[in-house]
Amino acid sequence: MTLILLNKPYGVLCQFTDPEGRPTLADYVKVKGVYAAGRLDTDSEGLLALTDDGKLIKKLSDPAHKTPKTYWAQVEGLPDQDALQKLSRGIELKDGKTRPAKAWIIPEPIGLWTRDPPIRHRAAIPTSWIELTITEGKNRQVRRMTAAVGFPTLRLIRAAIGDWKLEDLQPGEWREIQPAGRQ
User: Fold this and answer.
1) Which of the residues 18, 41, 53, 62 is marked catalytic?
2) How wide is the angle at C-alpha 151 spanned by C-alphas 81 and 79, nearest 5°?
């Protein structure tokens, strides 16, 4: 079994081909036969698992397995305790209520790379960072959750999938790892 952890750059499609010629995973990972276990939107960055193991793909991407995924969200404004509590209890979205999440304010992550293009900057509105751990994966869920409590996401980075962490991978870099229980 092959298991790859990739730091997906901003602007890259979470697939290996694109008829419109946009950047894809194939521009970074030259390993044949692996597929993304879950997705990150084109405008999201960070940790993406790729594997040739269909059971592992299902385990990581099916909400029934409740695999925790941790995100760093740079949001517009300074969230208060009420907003964090709402995120922690779950948010009512158009497609249903989200499961409870873990949410807290963090300092800007150490060693964070510069995004190209940079996020929009407005001098009159500060930004802050929230670390949010969810166990499902509704479409654009983190962005919709932060917007629902009044703090739109400006930049979104997946930092962890279960026990696997982004660590020092830079955008476009990847490493192959041994899954737990395999030698």
Assistant:
1) 41
2) 25
Q: What is the pTM of this model?
A: 0.94
Q: What does the pLDDT look like over 121-151, one tens digit per residue?
A: 777 889 999 999 999 988 899 999 999 999 9
How far apart, in whole angstroms, are the C-alpha atoms of residue 81 and residue 151?
13
Q: Over the range 113-126, which residues count as b (16 or more CB within 10 Å of their CB) and which as e? A: eebeeeeeeeeeee
Is 41 part of the annotated catalytic residue set? yes
- What CATH homologous superfamily does 3-176 map to? Alpha-L RNA-binding motif (3.30.70.1560)
**Would you give the distance in Å from CA 136 to the centre of its chain?**
12
- Closest residue by Cα to residue 59 from 132, 118, 1, 135: 135
Instruction: Quote the DSSP letter at residue 2.
Output: -
The β-bridge partners of 74 are 129, 155
Tokens of 135: 């166990």
Q: Which helix (H) or strand (E) holds 86?
A: helix 81-89
Contact predicate 72/157, CB 8 Å: yes
Residue type, 23: P
